[in-house]
């Protein structure tokens, strides 16, 4: 089910996604210097309030979904439109992403999404399976990995082009 939040009318073509900041938002300034041209941001959970902070400082559409470390408020998943294609945003813990991506891939197919962007593993990854991109931006805070990463998803000519970047 697609959720409307007043921004559904605009087709956004550049999505920058972060995850698993765990209260450490010190890399937001560096992220924003590198991603000024983003149309929309996504925070994929752990901690939801960090997604709200990202929204406040970018003043751009920002979606934040609830992770396993978030105990109140927020949606578990959102579907947004990127370049005319449906993109599922979720933390991933409810789909067992630490054990594999099959459940998440089937959820994206069920919702007719071209991509599912998730967190939880802290490991940056792009997988293309059964016509669906499964994209994990890793962790912007370096939690557990010491590597701070984010994902950029661009829509070009009705195709998604995901990339991973290190801060």
Brief descriptors of the model:
5-stranded mixed β-sheet; globular; disordered N terminus; alpha/beta; 3 helices; 167 residues; 16% helix
Q: Roughly what is the average pLDDT, rounded to an integer?
A: 92
What is the end-to-end distance?
34 Å
Helix content: 10-25%
Structural category is alpha/beta
Describe the strand arrangement of the main beta sheet, using strand numbers: 3-2-1-9-10
Shape: globular
Question: Are there runs of 5+ residues with pLDDT below 50, and where?
Answer: 1-9
| Count of helix runs | 3
Rg, nearest Å: 14 Å
Largest sheet: 5 strands, mixed
Helix and strand run: EHEHEEEHEEEEE
Strand content: 25-35%
Which oligomeric state applies? single chain
Number of strands: 10
Description:
The structure is a single chain. The model is unreliable at 1-9 (pLDDT under 50). Strand 9 (149-156) and strand 10 form a beta hairpin. The chain contains 3 helices and 10 strands; from the N terminus they run E-H-E-H-E-E-E-H-E-E-E-E-E. A 5-stranded mixed beta sheet has the order 3-2-1-9-10, covered by helices on one side. A 5-stranded mixed beta sheet has the order 4-5-6-8-7, with helices on one face. With 167 residues, it is α/β, with parallel strands linked by helices.
Q: How would you briefly describe this protein structure?
A:
With 167 residues, the protein is α/β, with parallel strands linked by helices.
Question: How are the elements arranged and paired?
Answer:
Blueprint: E1 14-18, H1 28-34, E2 40-43, H2 48-58, E3 62-64, E4 77-82, E5 85-90, H3 102-110, E6 115-117, E7 125-129, E8 132-136, E9 149-156, E10 159-166
Parallel strand pairs: 1-2, 2-3, 5-6, 6-8
Antiparallel strand pairs: 1-9, 4-5, 7-8, 9-10
């Amino acid at each position: 089910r697609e959720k409307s939040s007043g921004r559904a009318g605009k087709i956004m073509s550049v999505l920058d996604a972060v995850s698993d900041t765990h209260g450490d938002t010190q890399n937001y300034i560096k992220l924003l210097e590198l991603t000024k041209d983003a149309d929309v941001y996504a925070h994929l959970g752990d901690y939801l309030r960090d997604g709200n902070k990202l929204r406040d400082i970018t003043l751009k559409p920002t979606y934040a979904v609830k992770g396993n470390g978030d105990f109140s408020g927020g949606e578990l998943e959102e579907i947004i439109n990127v370049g005319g294609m449906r993109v599922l945003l979720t933390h991933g813990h409810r789909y067992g992403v630490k054990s594999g991506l099959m459940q998440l891939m089937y959820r994206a197919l069920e919702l007719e999404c071209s991509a599912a962007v998730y967190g939880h593993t802290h490991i940056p990854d792009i997988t293309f399976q059964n016509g669906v991109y499964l994209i994990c931006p890793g962790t912007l805070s370096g939690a557990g990995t010491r590597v701070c990463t984010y994902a950029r998803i661009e829509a070009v000519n009705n195709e998604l082009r995901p990339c991973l970047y290190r801060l």
